[in-house]
């Protein structure tokens, strides 16, 4: 914890890792002559004081950037057609009989139309130009929450504390601070990093913030902040640094370059082929990857680096990469992609380096990893045991440390199960929050592009980059329709959280080793701030049965194309052929389809109520990711029944619109003496991705401390 000891009304303490710097409206329109601010102020001498805070603000900003802190800039302004400008705001001041407002919002000024987006005056001043990866909130109001996604952005980053700078103190700065206070954030405004156009109002506004023992927050100074940072000597921390951040740190320090990393990756990929030759369906050529790395180096020479600069990644071969054939592990289905899927493009724009297309269960159908004509990948822990599927190659590529992360998919557990079998993190976001364009559909209403990564912070970093609303994806959710919740500034470990688990009868399907490890995991969660609460688990079990026993299986077939399945059925992998062949021979009636649709809607509502903490719900549901870890021989011998068992705790999540993340939670030794991984999944309701990741990070940290029997420290 850092501290501002001289803050009012008392010492302000904050953890740098979960503190964001919010710079309010330091845009040309507010601090340069001729903008809306000069009109608003009406006094050139007073107006000039607003610009005087910029050097101090920049020093604070530089420190946040040096520690990879969260930085958020806001800009007040309106759409060019002023559709988001209320008449009261437009007319109130300019209509004052004896006022000095000769120009109003939207009128032409020296720097373009006043407070209109896209105009020169609307942009942030050059000294504080946002870096790649920093958030810019375009707000139509004086506060920052109406008409924006700032609350969800803060939640996504796990922010608990806020430091404020900007203009004007009496208006936009304290308006936003008070909005943040209502949502549970600990807020402190740095009084020498903010300024307004009325000295008395500035003083009164700051006094009001910290009045009555901190009614709205704290008021501190930048000098205390600089001292706190300079004196801060981070003690060894329980949580390991995220591998992606470690790589970026080395780039910034000049210890290595993206070209070095690319060559290292391809050397390792070639060596790993001798251990497992079935990880990849298509590998980018070393020459093209090196060229991409060199292009990045040239593009960002002497410039701030984007958040995934030079980070190597894999892509499941159901996700389109421009100019590369997408096979879905089915040669008969293959086609040449003519554009990058938006998720891939977002990663490339953030500096990622594409390495290759990863193997999978054919047509993304199965949890085994044993259903590909391109070979059977095995777990990184054992040549005898399955890798899990359908995102088999993606998970192995990360588990074997061939790449830093992978873009995978999850329709019924396809990202979580293989992550568990390879000892890595597998995060399934809320469906409709990551664009599904450029994705071979397995089941359109359930499909989600996911992230597999070495750690929860890495998965979270990539998720924040790819989870961008796509208006061209008909299955996407509008961000403002997703839930938000109050923040506990203490974090889930100190502030606590509630969780539920399946009843003993449901857990009986697990092997004894899995049951024991899950029991230990629950104990660890309770010791880490969790409070165990009982819920009606039957909702989830009924929903799980819908996936393959109801009309949703036939939706999968419709998405793939009935004509394709009928004409190519004999050419498919034998297990896929058996699954779809049986379904083709027994189609549902229209009555069955409508019945199942109605049941799915009812179950989804009940499931979401489980996570409504305002009405007695829990924060998360915690389950074993899967039930056992079969050998390849066992899976090949009993592919359908065993696959169904593996999905016991994953199938329902997509059906009732949940998000979830697999977290490595220990290892065990099986009867043959093989050490194998165990994972739990932290599940939440639709849109609760950030909460799930917050609690998953607590779990990951606790397990790495050795809180679970057998955990490798």
Automatic annotation (TrEMBL):
<feature type="domain" description="Amidase">
    <location>
        <begin position="269"/>
        <end position="693"/>
    </location>
</feature>
<dbReference type="Pfam" id="PF01425">
    <property type="entry name" value="Amidase"/>
</dbReference>
<dbReference type="InterPro" id="IPR036928">
    <property type="entry name" value="AS_sf"/>
</dbReference>
<dbReference type="InterPro" id="IPR000120">
    <property type="entry name" value="Amidase"/>
</dbReference>
<dbReference type="InterPro" id="IPR000868">
    <property type="entry name" value="Isochorismatase-like_dom"/>
</dbReference>
<feature type="domain" description="Isochorismatase-like">
    <location>
        <begin position="19"/>
        <end position="209"/>
    </location>
</feature>
<protein>
    <submittedName>
        <fullName>Glutamyl-tRNA amidotransferase subunit A</fullName>
    </submittedName>
</protein>
<dbReference type="InterPro" id="IPR023631">
    <property type="entry name" value="Amidase_dom"/>
</dbReference>
<comment type="similarity">
    <text>Belongs to the isochorismatase family.</text>
</comment>
<dbReference type="Pfam" id="PF00857">
    <property type="entry name" value="Isochorismatase"/>
</dbReference>
<dbReference type="InterPro" id="IPR036380">
    <property type="entry name" value="Isochorismatase-like_sf"/>
</dbReference>
<dbReference type="GO" id="GO:0003824">
    <property type="term" value="F:catalytic activity"/>
</dbReference>
